[in-house]
Specification:
CATH class of the largest domain: Alpha Beta
Strand content: 15-25%
Number of domains: 2
CATH architecture of the largest domain: 3-Layer(aba) Sandwich
CATH topology of the largest domain: Rossmann fold
Shape: globular
Number of helices: 12
């Protein structure tokens, strides 16, 4: 018998995909010591830790933060949810003691300052680059084989920075942005189609920025039927624009960056790796010729499994999509140019 939120699950009521995901998570938790580290115990990091714990596939989640006692407090608060939410994952906190992260299979970097209203992700680079470089070095010192997921903004450039600063294999460095952008795309599609998000399929590639992301509206579908069968060109265009400013819209409403959906996106990537699910997510990956691009990290479809990025999937793009992808890549490379002083 399997349990969720402290209650038995009736597998007859679940879709087949949900059954497989749950069974994979529970069986994996019985047979594996899966340790995950999340650096940054703020809203995104804490949400990430919570979702990972509730899914019950990890044996331990370690929260790390520079603020004295902050990670320990968040960890304690989350552990007091265990009996209420029915999870067995151990959550611990640490104030800058990376020795406690030793042996992590996956490490998530959320460190850095969040966006404020009117601020672009690119404007964060001066502060966040130094933080991400130091954090990645500390993580690999104690978990040299860890797979690193980068959340800190500007995300594509921070992912590229980790590649350049650490020199570890490119399959072990993943930028989260595309998974989040695609979730926001599906939300906007379901809103326009007036249907459940479970009926919608869509993907966003390109840079994780308001101007750089490329929602693949031509390939979006409702239960395998192109959305163009249901929506006008004008409505489809509005979905694309609403998706591209998804983060900025929330920042304006909240006064800071969002955290629930980013945390959920990270947890989905971590689960795909921890449980070797071989799922496809759009992620920021280092390209070496794929999509005609080189020497940058940018969002593309990736198969995620136990080895991290196990394959970059090259899908056929229309001429318009190709042009937008190249434009996005130019923007990312321009931002990457600001890293020279950090990498020196």
């Amino acid at each position: 018998m399997f349990y969720s939120l402290g209650r038995p699950i009736d597998f007859k009521l679940l879709r087949q995909d949900d059954k497989l995901d749950l069974q994979s998570s529970f069986e994996h938790s019985k047979t594996s010591k899966m340790k995950v580290t999340v650096v940054g115990a703020g809203a995104v990091g804490a949400s990430c830790a919570e979702y990972i714990a509730i899914k019950n596939f990890a044996s331990e989640v370690v929260l790390v933060d520079i603020k004295e006692g902050y990670a320990e407090g968040k960890a304690m608060d989350l552990m007091q949810c265990a009996s209420l939410n029915g999870f067995d994952t151990k959550i611990t906190g640490s104030t800058s003691d990376y020795a406690k992260t030793a042996g992590s299979k996956v490490a998530v970097i959320t460190s850095g300052i969040p966006r404020k209203p009117g601020m672009t992700r690119e404007e964060l680079i001066g502060i966040n680059a130094g933080i991400v470089k130091e954090v990645s070095a500390n993580l690999l010192k104690h978990s040299p084989d860890a797979i690193i997921i980068v959340v800190s903004n500007p995300m594509d450039t921070m992912t590229y920075l980790v590649h350049k600063a650490t020199g570890i294999a490119k399959n072990r460095i993943i930028g989260m942005g595309g998974a989040l952008d695609s979730a926001r795309f599906k939300y906007r599609l379901s809103e326009a189609l007036e249907c459940p998000t479970s009926d919608v399929d869509g993907m966003v590639i390109g840079g994780h920025s308001d101007v750089g992301m490329v929602p693949l509206i031509e390939k979006a579908a409702r239960n395998s039927v192109p959305v163009s069968e249901f929506l006008s060109k004008e409505r489809m265009s509005q979905v694309v624009e609403d998706t591209k400013v998804g983060g900025a819209t929330l920042t304006k409403l909240l006064g800071t960056s969002a955290w629930y959906a980013p945390g959920a996106a990270v947890s989905a990537l971590v689960q795909a790796i921890a449980c070797d699910q071989k799922k496809i997510f759009p992620c920021s990956a280092l390209l070496e010729g794929e999509y005609g691009l080189n020497d940058l990290s940018i969002g593309v479809p990736c198969v995620l499994g136990a080895n991290g990025i196990e394959r970059i999937v090259e899908i056929a793009l229309s001429d318009a999509e190709t042009a937008k992808m190249k434009e996005s890549a130019e923007g990312v490379k321009k931002t990457n140019g600001l890293l020279d002083s950090v990498l020196a």
